[in-house]
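thought: fold this chain, then report.
action: predict
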Amino acid sequence: MTKTATTVGTCSATVTVTATDECGNSASTSYSTRIDNTPPTVTAGSIATCYPSAAAAESAAIAATTATDNCPGTVSKTATTVGTCSATVTVTATDQCGNSASTSYSTRIDNTPPVLSGCPAATLTVQCVSDVPAAATVTANDNCDGTVAVSFNETSSGPDCNKTITRTWTASDSCGNTTSCTQTITVQDTTPPVLTGCPAPTLTVQCPNPVPPPATVTANDTCGGALIPGYSQTTVGSGCTQTITRTWTATDSCGNSSSCTQTITVTPAGDNQGPPTTNPLANPNPAAKGTNVVITATVSDATTGGNNVASAFYSVDGGPYLPMYPQDGAFNSVTEVVTVTNTFAAAGVYNICIYGIDSVGNIGPTNCDLLIAVYDPSAGFVTGGGWFNSPPGAYGPDPTAYGKANFGFVSKYQKGAAIPTGEAEFQFKAGNLNFHSDAYEWLVVSGFMAQYKGNGTINGVAGYTFLLTATDGQITGGGGVDKLRMKIWNTSTSVVVYDNLLSPDGDKMTIGNTQPIDGGSIMIKTK
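observation:
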């Protein structure tokens, strides 16, 4: 027996199998099937350039892809993704016979925002608008795009006294993933102006002493700079029984204010002597220019009424009187050591005058005994400042005069100059002698000794010549003691007005031709 088969159709095919015996007898049976080896036809559409996940990209790709088949029936679509920043999504269409065809899409799988670097602190509080810093430089880096641009925006609200500034830095990548950082700056001025020059809070003035004029008080504000304080004065009573209240107030543009008050009590007569000033000193002296020099003096009312010292003032070379301060922190004693720190910008000899006022308003005598020598350490020089005991016979017009003599001097040759420059001051109060010179003829510096000559004035009258010989005891060979000789004579008559060396060896520059000083120091420096 034999079997044969025939097929009719393709997509809906009928296969008939016929069995035939040896006698030619036959019988048949049929099968329904599908004859199909043709894959579906796939047509690609379009999808977006970015998706937050592979699933979203695959769903979009499947939806965008059209698939048709030569035979009726369902065509299934599936998708797979390879890569992220440069991703390939492949959509495969499969018919019921397992025939398949594919198409691919290029896209980006990215839901990661850029990373910012250089973001400032989230909050910042400053006093002044001028204190607001420049905006920070913020950069951004993206996992797919690399370096991306950062946009900056700033807004502000409120007045300068209470302003809020908001700064925002924002970066976005090509897929629209965005990140930002924000800084909020609060400008709030809460600092009142600082007053300088306020007088002592209380002062007693005893008739007939005059009430001092109002102090010159200045103000400086952290944000507004220099201000002019307002001043007010009220008086209760009259004559020698009255109370005067003086108030200085400074207010900045934000309403912050500070004030100081002085109450002056005027009382009937009693103590009418001011406290004398003694022992004025400077440290260092001599001093290099630009160096802080501490000036001190003792003001005491112990022998002139017994009232507390209330204030003290000093002046440099006849300039305005400025306040000095109690070394112990408060004016509350009959005797006070007062102090102030001053800086001298230029080389020269400076005359310091100091006076004190007691608690009943008596102004003490002015002490101008202090001379401060200031030198320029960048070149060779000789300088000194201090005092020595002038012996009887030193002052020609009155040989009996003796006592403390103050000196201050500085001299050097400027680069390329043939004549030295400098200044010299010499005071001998017992003889009412005040010598000043800033005109020199020559200067000689040799080891531990220096000598120079020049012209000057006595009590403001010109026509005098001087020769100053100095020994720096701290230089090898100087003997450990600073020494000085000051010789002054009338230029036209050659009559000696002053010479503290009673038996000189002529005008030689020798250590024996100088007298030890009793205070201060002398410094000689070669280039």
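thought: worth noting. The longest helix spans residues 54-64.
final: tokens above.
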